[in-house]
Amino acid sequence: MTNVEILLEDNRWASIDLEELVGNAFYQTLIELGYSQSDYFVSVLGCSDKKMRELNHTFRSKDTSTNVLSWPSRERLACVEGNHPKRLDPALDAELGDIALSYETCLEEAAQSKTNFAFYVQRLIIHGSLHLLGYDHSSDPDATLMEDLERQILGNLSLKPHTQTWTKYSL
After folding, report:
1. Helix, coil or strand: residue 96
2. DSSP type of residue 14
């Protein structure tokens, strides 16, 4: 996929086709929001808990690992809670940003929720992509909008979960 760059720092990510999963989830997110697949670019790092802990500590001052982190190339948040962010401009926003995934945390959370690992990874890619596009879950109205979008996007992907369990923003 030409608009998705994958960097694997942990070889365990080779157990799934991360490039295909990322591409499907990223492109479906763009399509659902009315954007062209060919206008936007994302980079994804598949790493270990150790690396994710370092990233989380460096960028969020949290000395723990997490499942997904995202770094938008520029600020895109909505001006009003619960509203969609301003539309992207392909000339300004072609490079949306970066997403990192921690293998151990993703695998553990998928197992705990009895969810297919590949499906869970796609859910996190959608979550991270929405952050890059300006969505957030820091308030209840924003969280509701973002969660509804995640469900809609996941519902249109061909890969389905083994369970329909959702926990409100444990991501």
Report:
1. strand
2. G
